[in-house]
Each structure stands twice: as structure tokens, then as C-alpha cells.
Specification:
Length: 133
């Protein structure tokens, strides 16, 4: 863990992490949310449980740009967003909504599941993903 505050947690991987590794980490966060098991990932469950109403997980390759969401002054890597992936838990109308996306350097994003689908659908996708690894 690189940084956390009341509404976000910034995680840093090694700079050479692949998209598959970032995706796997997002699925681990998703699974921990549904099992209430963030402590197993060395993220305090109480931080996540206290979200009001959203907790964002920003995942960066390396630490160079990781402070861009909270540091004062000029962002370390320029004005755009440089995360490799995001996991979002909660929402203003649905406290249990979760969303996972891979983020490309060109600004495109790849959703990993439908965040508005019934809760069991993404979990079924997760089990399929685990079976292929």
C-alpha cells in the first residue's frame, strides 16, 4: 500500500507488472470485498467498512505517479490520470456496487465486469478466471 485516506487507497505494483497481473489484483480486491476479507490482503477491513459511501482503489505501476491523486502542487506525471487499474467499492445509490477496470495509457478503459449486474454474476466470472490461471 502506497497511501490511504478516508475514501481511497493507492496501491503500487512493480513497474513491469502486466495487464494480466493488474487484472488479477483487481479481481483479488473484488473477491475480498465480497468475502469481507481485506485484512488477508493487508488492507484494514475497518477502512473499507467505514466508506461513506465509496472507497476507491487506485493501482499504479511503480511509485512515480502514485501520489497524483492527493499530493499538493503540480502532479508528478502531468495533468492526466496515470493509474493502471481501478477498483471501486460502493456508490451513492448502492453501497455494495463494485467496479473494476484496466486503464490504458491512451485513456481507454476496459471494464472487467458489469458493475450493475446482480452481485453473483461478477463472482461467477471471477471463478471462471481463477479456473483459467
Amino acid at each position: 500500500m502506497f497511501h490511504h485516506d478516508a475514501s481511497s487507497i493507492t496501491l503500487v505494483t512493480r513497474e513491469t507488472a502486466t495487464d494480466a497481473e493488474i487484472e488479477s489484483l483487481i479481481w483479488e480486491l473484488h473477491n475480498a470485498a465480497h468475502a469481507h476479507a481485506f485484512d488477508k490482503l493487508k488492507i484494514e477491513q475497518k477502512w473499507v467498512d467505514a466508506r461513506d459511501p465509496i472507497m476507491w482503489f487506485h493501482i499504479y505501476r511503480g511509485s512515480k505517479c502514485a501520489s497524483e491523486k492527493y499530493a499538493s502542487g503540480t502532479p508528478p506525471c502531468g495533468g492526466s490520470y496515470h493509474a493502471a487499474g481501478d477498483y471501486t467499492l460502493g456508490g451513492f445509490t448502492n453501497r455494495d456496487r463494485d467496479d473494476g477496470v484496466l486503464l490504458e495509457s491512451d485513456g481507454r478503459s476496459t471494464p472487467l465486469w458489469n458493475p450493475d449486474a446482480p452481485a453473483g454474476v461478477a463472482t461467477q466470472q471471477s471463478k471462471k478466471q481463477e479456473a483459467t490461471q
